[in-house]
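Provenance and format

Records in this collection were gathered into a single text stream. Each protein contributes a sequence line and a token line. The two records reproduced below are adjacent in the stream.
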Amino acid sequence: MSLEKKLSYFKIYFGILILFCLNASILNCASAPAYKEVNVSAKYLLNDAERLIQEKKYGEASESLRAVFRIYPDNAQAEILWEKLPEVWQRRTKYDNALGQGFAKRSPEESGFFERLAWYIPDRLLDLLDIFSLNISIGPQIGVSSWNTRAIQTTLYAGRTVSFGWSQKRNLGISEESSAEYAFLGFGGAAIHGRRIGTGRRAYAGTWDGFFVHMPNNPLYINYRDYWSNGGKVGFVLIGAEVELHYTEIADFFAGFFFVDFLGDDFATTNSINFNREQEDHLYRVINAANRYNEKQMNEFRNAFPEPEKVIETENQDIQIIVPKGKNKKPN
């Protein structure tokens, strides 16, 4: 290899390294959600969850409580509301599914044989479309990533992009993402902040970790990316592309022929979970804080805004609200 080619490769590598470090610094220095605003949103979600439970909108209530538990894991009011959820929603609220992003956030419902039969062909076609994803990204970016499940990957990538395309869970829409990440096999580091909106459910991402093991229970894969996929991504200067093949969706497609829907996304047996813009904004703020606050910030937040209310149930099941007095309670 000539000296000129070696210098060219060195310049490319050096450019990637500089952009990676710069992007990571920008992401880490960016202001996290204000403590007061997060507390206001958490209280809003608690009050809203109580109303949603009364209206038997258990899916929406579960999502609201799930966000609150990430900020206040021992919140008394949230615990009481959680106990009022049906068992299936109690599990979904507190326990992550190993299928992560692949498991649909939809509400199960009882349906008869003829209804399931009517939806049989449309559901199989939609399951087929779930198998792949393709997105084109625009914005400053450079790097590559390749993976066969996120346990086996090679990644060196940085960018601040807006992308359009077809994402997992039937999401034809737009994503905005700022990221700087590296990985080899299942080990690496990442600073990622992203949001996806479109025809499917909204998805949020936030992780700031210099080194971690990529596991299915990481919030990045519970809420935003598919851990169980095969794919690749490339970005150069101002344009890039990402393509994925989703293994769990392939299994769900074939299982569907036998009326089995283990990803919970068939229209015949589920209903959508819907939030208005105000609810979405409060959810996003709390989830964003839970993703972005480091341990020190979380302690500061809980000291500044301990559990705003304690709720207890009396013998006649009426709810009493007790406002704490004196010094702020220390976080657990």
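Adjacent record:
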Amino acid sequence: MLIVDLGLSRQVNYAPLTVNGPDYLMELGRYIARTIADVEVHAHLDPAMATDMVFHSQCLDDAEEMAEHR
């Protein structure tokens, strides 16, 4: 299991990158699903809004929609 935490770091020498968190997670999920066979990627973006995305490797085709809303 890979967990990406987009929260703030407590380390003083931490220099954060400026990224759009939800977009970053969507692209990461798509990339993992495209590059690893027989995988299912779950992206939980905002529990308050119930924004969950599921990427299935066997369904991916760059010409069609790559995510399935739960």
